[in-house]
Amino acid sequence: MRPWSAEQLARAAGAQLIDAPPAAGGPERVVIDSRQAGAGALFAGLRGRGVDGGRFARQALGDGAWGTLTTAEYAAEAREVGRGVVLAADDPLAALQRLATAWRRELGADVIGVTGSTGKTSTKDLLLAVLGRRRRTIASRANYNTEIGVPLEILSAPIGTEVLVLEMAMRGSGQIAELAAIAEPGVAVIVSIGPAHLELLGTIEAVAAAKAELIAALPPGGTAVVPAGEALLRPHRREDVSIITFGKGGDVQLGWSSDGRVEIVLGQERISLEVDFTQAHLRQNLLAAVAAARAIGVLAEGRIELSLSAGRGQRVALPDEVTLIDDCYNANPVSMRAALEDLAALAGREHRRRVAVLGDMLELGPGELEFHRDAGRQAAAAGVDVLLTVGPLAAAISESFDGEVHRAVDAREAAGLLGELLRPGDVVLVKGSRGVGLELICRALGAPNGA
Description:
Elements: H1 6-13, E1 16-19, E2 29-31, E3 41-44, H2 57-62, E4 67-70, H3 72-79, E5 85-88, H4 92-107, E6 110-115, H5 120-131, E7 137-139, H6 149-156, E8 163-167, H7 175-183, E9 187-190, H8 198-201, H9 204-211, H10 213-216, E10 223-227, E11 242-246, E12 252-257, E13 261-266, E14 269-275, H11 280-295, E15 303-304, E16 314-318, E17 322-327, H12 333-350, E18 354-359, H13 368-381, E19 386-390, E20 404-408, H14 411-421, E21 427-431, H15 439-444
Parallel strand pairs: 2-3, 3-4, 4-5, 6-8, 6-9, 7-8, 9-10, 10-11, 14-15, 17-21, 18-19, 18-21, 19-20
Antiparallel strand pairs: 1-5, 12-13, 13-14, 16-17
Helix pairs in contact: 1-4, 4-6, 5-11, 12-13
């Protein structure tokens, strides 16, 4: 941010301007953590489950923040500091969201919303790689994909931003619609539909309907990028929206591929790209990214240098020629299958031993144990040599796995066991839901992990 005055910002947020220094310019950034509220920052004090962030508004101004946005109660306290801009709103989060929408319109950037049961983060990373060389692009950081994170990402974009790539997460119905109302995307990318969040949504059809809220939010003439042949999304297609399908039999599909290059077919066009990754699921997600880029007038070309977000399948070289596949950020049945296939492909090329550290997959509802047993069958099909399960649900993975098995109650115990199990030259996959905390294992192995 920057250009808006305090008065303009207050109007955009629907907030009351309580106090402002004469001719105060706009803030450089917006933060919700008072510890980050130094010079140039607008501190938004949001209500939390246990603590109201507004309590720290006075401290934020004392630390030199540009201003604060809180409820009237805490705005009155902040005003006593006698410096900085003081804004008040009945609901500071709603005000933050309104401010983000206004800033998105001020930027006039193309907005691409990305969601999916699995693969949305890597597709967002791929879109940044495809677009970043051609257009000034801002893409969501880490887990900034919620009703708080999305507005913060929009507000982090400077004047001159040409494309916003915004990841959108959800656990229940209505949440994608809320994020899309804030971001107003012109392109919707639904990477995949799978059995995630069934605990709240109940059925795979309900998952598809929740993801399809992104299509419903598009303006007439917008573009939806969806997997080819995904029947669950057919009821949610719109006549006034362009549909681009990707994958086998779709509008955008793989031609030939090698270790370092891929050919992609876009209708009558063929493009050859140099890539630095071999994973099959990433090449599939690249199709979605290329389709979305084409929808805003950018034809992918040249070398695609992918930088994956932390914990999303990075390959890390460890001592004794051990290779870690750090996929610890999250897991569901679809992403677990893809990760095991990646393990098999990487280890198989060099005939290396395959070690899988698999944690609980959470929020799967009544069928959770069968989903875990199925993961055991997938591990066997992937030729896993050693299986280490982490957590009570993951223990069911071993029930359908006929091989060397070890079980750990939690990540700390697993980290200790794994140190004894690994041999030089092994390829080890670490994969599980975020609530299991498997990043502890990756750090114990010596991998830098910010997940």
